[in-house]
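User: Study the shape:
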Amino acid sequence: MQIDIDPAKLGKRHKADVALLADAKAALAALLDVLPERAETGWYKANAQNVVNWRAYLNKLETKTEGDLQLYQVYNQINRVKTDDAIFSLDVGDVNQTSNRHLHLADTNRHFTSNLFATMGAGIPGAIAARLNNADKQVWSLSGDGGAAMVMQDLVTQVQYKLPVINVVFSNNQFGFIKDEQEDTNKGYIGVEFNDIDFSKVA
């Protein structure tokens, strides 16, 4: 089953046994109204508990205070200070996975990334566009050091046009996504590690 508000997307990537042209939230609500209620199975209960365990694990990572600073605690602070209508521009890379896990978004928040083409370096310029179109909202760019290094000149644009964007750069001195893909080939790593960059000095 595929539900999409864009008719051009229905069956585009995969054959859909049932294709519904509708807003997903409204369509799911309508389906729940007409489908018969089923008793909770053991499988369902086990997976519901898995969700509880998973969220508790993420919370433990985000709120821990011992040891070195890790990205989990950074997300905890982002979640603490973000506004309910904040907009997030996510770069491409490990930051996509970590944001999906640790960024606590309200229904009124918006976030976007370069999903289809996976364009590294999209985070900072995307935040510029969001800021220009939403002068009254808090705007964030979340990037890895690889993506941020590709477009660090766009910080000049932010300053020149006095665009208040909160730029967060997660640094691990590598193209993490690409390194993972190279690891799958069992042929070693090529061009995926680089020297540490002091982005605070760049800013």
